[in-house]
Design goal:
By secondary structure, this protein is α/β, with parallel strands linked by helices. Helix content is 16%, strand content 33%. It has a single domain, classed as Metallo-dependent phosphatases (Purple Acid Phosphatase, chain A, domain 2, 4-Layer Sandwich), CATH 3.60.21.10.
Length: 159
């Protein structure tokens, strides 16, 4: 079955944009999601890929940002809850994030902040952290495919 939406998901780029842009060049997603911490790093994506929709949320390092703290992103037949994660205490637990996604009727929640890639399911919600795309030893991003029947497939990919 062919996906109806393919999304590239990045977080915590911290001004290191080259690998993020290269991943978009190679994958050619239908949309791009940036989960904060240097949300202005997405300007390079807006310039090079103006035809690809871009969704951005503010992280704890994005002090003067106009981006929202959280957003709901349409992914074909489903919706994704996106946030940086610091306001949901993701360092300690994923419960608050799970509850927020359930309340918003989103079968997937995407977050960053921890710089650790993670993919798990709690309470019927897929929780996806693409890891850090810009700071640390293990740089990563995520690829998300959504199918017509509402199925969601996620992969953590190395940069």
């Amino acid at each position: 079955m062919k996906p109806v939406v393919r999304a590239a998901v990045f977080s915590d780029t911290h001004r290191n944009t080259a690998l993020m842009a290269e991943a978009v060049r190679r994958s050619r997603p239908d949309l791009i999601i940036h989960l904060g911490d240097h949300d202005r790093d997405t300007e390079i994506l807006e310039e090079e890929f103006p035809e690809i929709p871009l969704y951005v949320v503010r992280g704890n390092c994005d002090l003067a940002s106009d981006a929202p703290d959280r957003d709901i992103v349409p992914l074909g037949p489903v919706k994704a809850f996106i946030t940086h994660g610091h306001l949901y205490n993701v360092d300690w637990s994923l419960d608050y994030l799970t509850y927020a996604a359930q309340e918003a009727e989103c079968p997937i929640a995407m977050y960053g902040h921890t710089h650790r890639a993670d993919l798990r399911e709690i309470g019927g919600v897929q929780l996806l952290n693409p890891g850090t795309a810009g700071k640390g030893r293990d740089l990563s991003w995520a690829w998300v495919e959504v199918f017509e029947n509402g199925g969601i497939a996620c992969q953590i990919r190395d940069l």
